[in-house]
Structures are given as structure tokens and as C-alpha cells.
Amino acid sequence: MPTQTADHEQSVADDRRAAQPGSLERGIDILLALSASSRPVSLSELCRSTGLPKSTAHRILGVLCARELARRVGNVYVPGEVLETMARTTRALVPGTRAVVLPYLLYLYEATRQTVNLAVPAGLEARYVERLYGHNRVGSRSDGTDRAPLHCTATGKALLAFDPRLRNELIARGPFERWTRRTVTTLTGLERELAQVRRHGVAYAQEEYTEGVACVAAPVFGPAGTVCMALGVAAPAHAAQLARLGISVRGAAQAISAAISPCPEPLRVP
User: Fold this and answer.
1) Which of 47, 68, 110, 189 is deepest in the core (most CB within 10 A)?
2) Would you give the DSSP letter of residue 82?
3) Per-residue model confidence as pLDDT tens digits over 35-92
4) Which Gene3D superfamilies match (predicted)?
């Protein structure tokens, strides 16, 4: 009889432990709470929404931050770069195939004879998913990595201007890194430029990321009307006719926005 009682108590204890959420489930609860919020979340708010003890939530957040699934900004938390990159890549799979988009990139290259870039947001960077190089191209810092900062590139500004959440995340991360003497590093200066982008539909970067390179870009909008990509042209700064390039880039971006909306298959981001 004592043995049966001990076995029963052990079984009850095992069932209780099995019913309790493990670290994986608790981590998922925290990530879901972070992703569902439109603003940074404090530790206390996470504890209230998940029901976790403060010590447990703090420990799990430490692991998530170390793996870049969450990020601490002062005394609050936001989704980490890995999570944001996954989300933005998913949002970039807009209706429209590579076969539909590429002819417009080729047209833009033929019209400008300069390097043509197609970028999507990846964390707090612009990720170039298609590039057609011009013969007289000037080397850029993005060569080899196909990534560049948002605040000092034309494609980045085109994305920032029409994505408030992306803009808020960049501001929260601050300060803005200076890459050249022309880099805009103040919030006031950047906001002034983004307002111009929203007004005219074209973004410019004149030797802000790489000396000798000028860029023009325009936003590409998906079926939901939200910005999903940016189309840009990079040219040698000394020879770039930015106003003329801007007209061509904006026209091509508008054509892509119209073309990808009705297409049944997604644009595949490599």
C-alpha cells in the first residue's frame, strides 16, 4: 500500500510538471507579446500579458536578446533583428514574380545606363535582391554584402518614408552612424528628407554612404498599398543628373507597383 501511494503521488507530480509550460513555450509567449505590440514593451507589461514571474521573464528575455530575437532599448523591449528580418522578408513576398519585375529593371538600365538596384528591408538595413551593374559604376561599400544602412541610402530613405514602424525602430536604435562627411546624422535632418520623399515620391543620397556615389530611389507598393521594396539607381556622383534619373526611377517603380498587384505568384527573395 505505501508503494502504491508513493507511485500515485509521483504520477500526480509528473502530470503537474507536464502541464506547466516549459522555457520554449514561455519564450514563444514573450515573442508573441512583443510582436503584437505596436510600441516597445516594459518587463512589467510583458509579465502582465504572459502571466510569467518577473524573474522568469527577465531570464528568458536575456536569452532572446543574446540570440537577437528580442532587443532591449533602455528599459523596454522590442522584437530583435532576426525576428524583424524574418517578418520583413515575409512581407516582401508580394504578389508578383521575378519574371514580371526584371523587365522593368532592364528598362531602367537601358534608360539610364547606370547600376540598378532593387531592395527590401532587412532589419534596419536595405537588402539588395536584384542588381544590374552599369559599365561606369563606382565601387560601393555595399559591394559583396548587398546590404546598406537605411538612413544614408536612397533605397533606405524610400523605405523609411512610407513605413512608420521601420522609421520608429531606426529612431529608437539611434544614433545615426556617419559614413562620409555628407551623411545625415540628425533626426531633424532625416525627417526633413523623408518629408520630401513623401511629397515627391523620390529619395536621394549624394555621397552619403560611399564617396563618389550618388543614388536615386523610389518606393514600390504591394497590393495592400504598403511599401514593400525600393527601386534605385546608383551613378558616379560627378556625372549623375539626379533630377532626370529621378523621373525615370519613379516611373519604373510605379510601373512595378501596378504590375505586381494582380500576379498570383510571389516575388522570391533569395
Assistant:
1) 47
2) H
3) 777 688 899 999 998 999 999 999 999 988 887 788 888 889 988 766 665 555 444 4
4) 3.30.450.40, Winged helix-like DNA-binding domain superfamily/Winged helix DNA-binding domain (1.10.10.10)
Examine the domain organization and report whether 42 and 153 are in the same domain: no
Residues in a beta bridge with 230: 119, 219
Q: How far apart are CA 35 and CA 260, in angstroms?
A: 27
CA–CA separation, 268 vs 118, rounded Å? 12
- Which residues make Cβ contacts (< 8 Å) with residue 213, sequence separation at least 6? 138, 140, 207, 234, 235, 236, 237
Grid cell of 38 as nine digits: 505596436
pLDDT tens sequence across 98-148: 777 888 888 898 888 889 999 998 888 898 888 888 777 777 888 777 889
Confidence (pLDDT) at 86: 52
**How are beta strands 203-206 and 213-221 bridged, if at all?**
antiparallel
Burial of 86 by CB count in 10 Å (0-12 exposed, 13-18 middle, 19+ buried)?
middle
Given 58, 81, 104, the domain boundary residue is: 81
Burial class (CB in 10 A: 0-12, 13-18, 19+), 89: middle
Q: What is the pTM of this model?
A: 0.64
Of 108, 184, 198, nearest to 149 (Cα)?
184
